[in-house]
TrEMBL record:
It holds the Pfam family TPR_14. The keyword Zinc does not apply. It comes from Goodfellowiella coeruleoviolacea. TPR repeats lie at residues 111-144. Residues 178-192 have a biased composition (Low complexity). Residues 174-208 are annotated as: Disordered. Keywords: TPR repeat. The lineage of its organism: Bacteria, Bacillati, Actinomycetota, Actinomycetes, Pseudonocardiales. InterPro entries: TPR-like_helical_dom_sf (IPR011990), TPR_rpt (IPR019734). This is Tetratricopeptide repeat-containing protein.
Length: 208
């Protein structure tokens, strides 16, 4: 049976949890080239763009946790950050960030791509931007426990957390029922508090 690109990706993500990146590089290249070919045929192919984000994110985590052997004891603590002098790791992080942003430029509300962006930014050591990404994911889906867990892990570690909390607090003070705020985001002045948060997030989520 011939494996599809998505099948190969699933297997790669599984293997990346315990094998060094060099051991599975051939598979990585095959999957990457397949998705890139699909995107050349259809630049608006969100599924392939998200597939690339998953692929590059998995390789980055394999490098951090397997190749380097950095420890991450709990999801409730910040992810291990790469040294700024680690040119290989920083390049992988940049690839993962770029792939996630590419997907988000096609679909700004893809929570998986937002989460992958946050993780890549976290590994890169850019906690402020990671918090913005996780906050946006939680804003889009309050039931996204991965995003809310990452926010909790970084709470107090980045100034952007306080800024996001302040913005959400301002919306809550409007006197609108919680469900209504979630739908409208209208403050007492008639301006959209959530829209402001979303605009701030846009610079992090979809940029060159």
């Amino acid at each position: 049976m011939t494996l599809t690109t998505n099948d190969l990706l699933r297997d790669y993500v599984r293997d990346a949890q315990e094998r060094e990146t060099a051991e599975i590089e051939d598979v990585f290249v095959e999957i990457r080239d397949n998705y890139e070919a699909l995107l050349r045929d259809d630049p608006d192919d969100v599924a392939s763009a998200v597939g690339l984000a998953v692929l590059t994110g998995a390789k980055l985590q394999a490098y951090v946790l397997v190749d380097l052997g950095l420890e991450w004891h709990s999801e409730w603590e910040p992810a291990p950050a790469l040294s700024t002098e680690d040119t290989v790791g920083q390049a992988l992080a940049e690839d993962a960030v770029s792939a996630a942003r590419r997907a988000l430029c096609l679909d700004p509300e893809d929570n998986l791509a937002i989460l992958l962006l946050g993780l890549a930014l976290e590994h890169r050591g850019d906690l402020d931007a990671a918090v913005v990404a996780y906050a946006r994911a939680a804003e889009l889906d309050p039931e996204d426990t991965d995003a809310t867990t990452r926010l909790a892990a970084l709470r107090g570690s980045a100034p952007a957390v306080a800024e996001f909390d302040a913005a959400k607090s301002g919306v809550a003070k409007s006197g609108v029922a919680e469900s209504g705020v979630a739908e409208s985001g209208v403050t007492e002045s008639g301006e959209s508090g959530q829209e402001e948060v979303s605009q701030d997030a846009a610079a992090v989520l979809c940029s060159a």
